[in-house]
Amino acid sequence: MTLEAIAVTKEFPGGVRAVENVTVRLRPGQIVGLVGESGSGKTTLARMLALFHAPTRGEIRLNGEPVRKAREYHRHVQLIFQDPFSSLNSLRTVGYTVGRALRIHRGLRGRKEVEAAAIELLQQVNLSADFLTKLPHELSGGQRQRVVIARALAVGSSVLLADEPISMLDVSIRLDILNLLADLRDRQGLAILYITHDIASARYLCDEISVMYGGQIIESGPADEVIRNPRHPYTQLLIDCAPDPSRTIQDLEVEYGEPPSLTNAPPGCRFQPRCPHATSICAQQAPPRAHLGNGQWADCWLYA
Ligand SMILES: Nc1ncnc2c1ncn2[C@@H]1O[C@H](COP(=O)(O)OP(=O)(O)OP(=O)(O)O)[C@@H](O)[C@H]1O
Ligand SMILES: [Mg+2]
Predict the structure, then answer these.
(1) Helix (H) and strand (E) counts for the chain?
(2) Mean per-residue pLDDT pooled into runs of 10, the chain (304 residues)
(3) Does 238 lie in the same domain as 192?
(4) What is the number of the ligand closest to the CA of 49?
(5) DSSP state of 267
(6) Exposure pattern of 166-195 as b/e (b: 16+ CB <10 Å)?
(7) Domain containing 284: what range?
(8) Do 63 and 197 share a domain, yes or no?
(9) Is 44 exposed, middle or buried (0-12, 13-18, 19+ CB in 10 A)?
(10) Average pLDDT over the chain, rounded to whole?
């Protein structure tokens, strides 16, 4: 299934424009990374893609069709949260949780049949059959995230929206979860949105990277191109900060001032007040989109 957001804007009460005129496309067998600092609108975009927020403007399309029925839709598209504990029922065993999805969405009936299918799904996320009888509090964070992913597979989803799926996990098991997502892409052709602050993990996992700033995607392209040859000054700063763990995206605020107001967005480029390359036009007019070859583009006056 191909999932698209076409020119979506989300305005919250009070005039907060958390996402403005964003287009993204998730294709089968592809992982798109959505990178950006806190408050840039990543979760809001994911929630629109998951139909938890209605776009103020624009449209969500599944296989080219505007989406209307939420019930049918959530069979295909599942959101995976940062905290897997919050999305599991703490009183239910792993076997019950995965089995229930198989009964409802795959129409499986007999106890034996459901159990066999549940074991197979657990194997796909590298958990043994022993986990069937376990409760969420008996699992590690990484194991819980695997169960959440197994449940999405049980539902039969072909699109996963993973909102910082590893950021609450121990560093030692983060890579395992990333490898699992890569595996599901490669072997089952899932379309995956991977939301992260961590540009290094996006490079490792993603086919494409889109960079968000102040509610807009300001650069996008093949992951290697965006990392090796970032063209938007914000992406360049993000990557400059990345190799040094003592510097974070938040440090940019100290050096380059506050992130933009989402209520009173200034005219021109949102990054202009923090941009080392800004010229007078940047404050006056929104930057044009520059197509830079190989599918890479950036919204920046530098390339006009
Ligand atoms: N329900 C809401 N009502 C009003 N404002 C909201 C709501 N949800 C989010 N916002 C605002 O929208 C902006 C974008 O928030 P969002 O959660 O999408 O950012 P994010 O990129 O996911 O940040 P983080 O990296 O911290 O998770 C923020 O300024 C936030 O305060
Ligand atoms: Mg978020």
Answers:
(1) 11, 12
(2) 97 94 98 94 97 95 88 90 90 97 93 96 96 96 94 94 93 91 96 94 96 97 96 93 58 59 82 92 96 96 94
(3) no
(4) 1
(5) S
(6) bebbeeebbeebbebbbebbeeeebbbbbb
(7) 230-303
(8) yes
(9) buried
(10) 92
How distant is the alpha carbon of residue 274 from its chain centre? 25
What is the Å distance from ligand 2's center to 120 Cα?
32
Which tokens is 193 given? 């949105």
> How far is ligand 1, taken at its centre, from the CA of residue 167, in Å?
17
Residue located nearest, by CA, to atom 16 of ligand 1 = 41
Q: What torsion, rounded to 10 degrees, do the Cα atoms 8, 72, 148, 56 define?
A: 20
Number of Cβ within 10 Å of residue 273's Cβ equals 16
pLDDT in tens, 116-140: 999 999 999 999 999 999 999 999 9
Tokens matching residue 194: 């991977």
Assess whether 45 and 166 both reside in one domain: yes
Closest C-alpha to ligand 1, atom 22: 43
Question: Cβ distance 30 to 185 under 8 Å?
Answer: yes
Place of tokens 């009070």: 14
d(CA 133, CA 92): 9
Amino acid sitting at position 37:
E
Q: Are residues 136 and 267 in the same domain?
A: no
Token pair for residue 268?
């021109």
Is the CB–ligand 1 distance for residue 123 below 6 Å? no
- pLDDT tens for residues 144-195? 999 999 999 999 999 999 999 999 888 888 999 999 999 999 999 999 999 9
Atom of ligand 1 nearest to the CA of 45: 18
Per the rule left: phi > 0, alpha: psi between -120 and 50, beta: everything else, 17 is beta
Instruction: Answer yes or no: do 173 and 270 share one domain.
Output: no
* In the block, residue with structure tokens 């897997």: 84
132: nearest Cα among 100, 156, 173: 100
